[in-house]
């Protein structure tokens, strides 16, 4: 075999030339701008304004980004490039325009695009003025044609969002834990949609019964009761939903005994409602239980009542894997295997922030409009929007690296010591594990890192 046939560097060189070294950040941010933003807006959909005389709704429509610009001190608007933002200590961002329509009795009265805030723009992304420009044009604009992009310019400093390693979403991961001398079998699912995640945990107790831990429920719910509440009522349907194998079905006996008297879907919902909202009116209890089933339980399968059957079958699949682990038919999942991991880049991190900021904006807008009462119309809506709510939250988070909920150091100042250190910084990954604990296995080199993660 000649040396030419084994020379793979040409392919690697070609990939780097076409894609660049910061492609993972740019793709993630591009996905967020094109789809993520709109899906967060669609989640809210409509805002109901309840005034004494004329209640009306504001329907939220399409979202669009304008070219990056800044507001000068005299009030004039100037289009800006990254180099100017660096030199003048400005934030390189684009205004977000949202289509708002006033709806009364299902008739759209008036409609307009309203500025709801500014979003920081990633250098060389689809929203950036430098996107796909030839080298000669980049040099004219004062940019380095070899600069890979993938970072933000906030108040003149270059900040990069470091990739964060996490366990895979929407995947059943089974594992064993030892507590007080007993082996406890667990199945976990981190269910995730844009900017929101909910952890479901199935635990097999020493007596063989299985319980479920759901976010939003202060108590553990017996598995069979939960599946009944989702619509599978007969014992045979539930057992078949878990597995058609009679050995696995026999292992479910303790769980069926724990379900006891509850036989119908309605009974199961009432049972759950009394556990999660004790002391409330029955009507509210039922509503809380149904919200928990639709929103808190596996939101990636849908958040409507018609998705409940699918959720019941997913729970059956997770239970089957848990019982198989107990019977030693499958091995416990390796958390350090890269097939069970995901890396969150700028897109997912910004989606988390934007969701919180947008919800705050909607709450503030509703309060302002309901308080003003008499004033209505699209101009009143435009006046009630405070763009600073979104702009300040995003800018402060990227500038400081504080992402809320105790997460710090998410962004770092881009290392410009030399070209190699810049590239290295853009391709760095953080582990969520704390440094104080000796997680030896997590720090070891894993065979699945080959060709993906640089071990140096």
What's the quick description here?
This protein is α+β, with helices and mostly antiparallel strands and 456 residues long.
Strand arrangement in the largest pleated sheet: 10-11-12-13-14
Strand content: 15-25%
| Biggest sheet layout | 5 strands, antiparallel
User: How many distinct domains?
Assistant: 2
In terms of structural class, how would the helical and strand content be classed? alpha+beta
The counted number of beta strands is 17
CA radius of gyration: 26 Å
Kindly report the average pLDDT value.
Answer: 89
Span between termini = 31 Å
Q: Can you tell me the CATH architecture of the largest domain?
A: Alpha-Beta Complex
Helix content: 25-40%
Shape, principal axes of CA atoms: flat
User: What low-confidence regions span 5 or more consecutive residues with pLDDT below 50?
Assistant: none
CATH class of the largest domain: Alpha Beta
Q: Per CATH, what is the topology of the largest domain?
A: Rna Polymerase Beta Subunit, Chain: C,domain 2
Helical stretch count?
Answer: 17
Please tell me about this protein's structure.
The model has no long low-confidence stretch (mean pLDDT 89). The chain has 17 helices and 17 strands. Strand 13 (210-213) and strand 14 form a beta hairpin. By secondary structure, it is α+β, with helices and mostly antiparallel strands. The strands form five sheets. Strands 10-11-12-13-14 form a five-stranded antiparallel beta sheet. A four-stranded antiparallel beta sheet has the order 1-2-5-6. The chain has two domains: 18-166 and 340-449, Alpha-Beta Complex (Rna Polymerase Beta Subunit, Chain: C,domain 2), CATH 3.90.1100.10; 173-338, RNA polymerase Rpb2, domain 2 (Dna-directed Rna Polymerase Ii 140kd Polypeptide, Chain: B, domain 3), CATH 3.90.1110. It has helices spanning 3-6, 9-19, 23-44, 82-87, 135-140, 223-229, 235-242, 246-250, 253-259, 265-276, 282-296, 308-326, 346-372, 378-384, 388-400, 419-426, 440-443; strands spanning 46-49, 56-65, 69-71, 77-79, 93-104, 107-120, 152-154, 157-161, 163-167, 173-179, 182-193, 196-204, 210-213, 221-222, 341-344, 411-413, 429-430.
């Amino acid at each position: 075999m000649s040396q030419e046939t084994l020379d793979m560097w040409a392919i690697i060189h070609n990939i780097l030339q076409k894609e660049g070294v910061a492609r993972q950040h740019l793709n993630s941010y591009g996905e967020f701008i094109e789809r993520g933003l709109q899906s967060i807006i669609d989640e809210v959909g409509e805002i109901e304004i309840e005034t004494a005389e004329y209640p009306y709704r504001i329907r939220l429509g399409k979202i669009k980004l304008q070219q990056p610009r800044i507001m000068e001190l005299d009030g004039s608007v100037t289009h800006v490039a990254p180099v100017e933002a660096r030199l003048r200590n400005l934030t390189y961002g684009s205004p977000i325009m949202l289509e708002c329509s006033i709806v009364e009795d299902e008739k759209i009265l008036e409609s307009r695009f309203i500025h709801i805030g500014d979003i920081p723009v990633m250098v060389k992304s689809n929203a950036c003025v430098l996107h796909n420009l030839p080298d000669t044009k980049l040099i004219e604009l004062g940019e380095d044609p070899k600069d890979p992009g993938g970072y933000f310019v906030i108040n003149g400093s270059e900040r990069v969002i470091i990739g964060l390693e996490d366990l895979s979403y929407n995947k059943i991961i089974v594992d064993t834990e030892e507590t007080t001398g007993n082996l406890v079998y667990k199945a976990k699912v981190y269910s995730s949609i844009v900017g929101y995640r909910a952890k479901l945990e199935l635990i097999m107790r020493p007596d063989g019964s299985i319980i479920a831990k759901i976010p939003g429920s202060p108590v553990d719910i017996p598995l069979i009761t939960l599946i009944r509440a989702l619509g599978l009522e007969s014992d045979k349907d539930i057992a078949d939903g878990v597995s058609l194998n009679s050995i696995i079905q026999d292992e479910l006996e303790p769980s069926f005994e724990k379900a006891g008297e509850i036989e119908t879907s309605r009974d199961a919902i009432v049972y759950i409602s009394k556990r999660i909202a004790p002391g409330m009116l029955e009507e509210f209890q039922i509503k809380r239980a149904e919200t928990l089933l639709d929103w808190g339980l596996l939101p990636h399968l849908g958040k409507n009542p018609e998705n409940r059957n699918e959720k019941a079958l997913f729970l059956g699949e997770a239970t089957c894997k848990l019982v198989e682990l107990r019977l030693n038919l499958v091995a416990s999942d390796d958390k350090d295997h890269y097939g069970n991991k995901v890396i969150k880049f700028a897109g997912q991190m910004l989606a988390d922030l934007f969701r919180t900021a947008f919800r705050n904006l909607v709450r503030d807008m509703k309060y302002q409009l309901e308080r003003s009462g008499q004033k209505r119309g699209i101009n009143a809506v435009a006046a009630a929007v405070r763009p600073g709510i979104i702009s300040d939250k995003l800018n402060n988070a990227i500038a400081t690296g504080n992402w809320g909920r105790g997460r710090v150091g998410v962004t770092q100042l881009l290392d410009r010591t030399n070209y190699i250190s810049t590239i290295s910084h853009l391709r760095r990954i953080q582990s969520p594990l704390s440094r104080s604990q000796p997680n030896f296995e997590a720090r070891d080199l894993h065979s699945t890192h080959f060709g993906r993660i640089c071990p140096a």
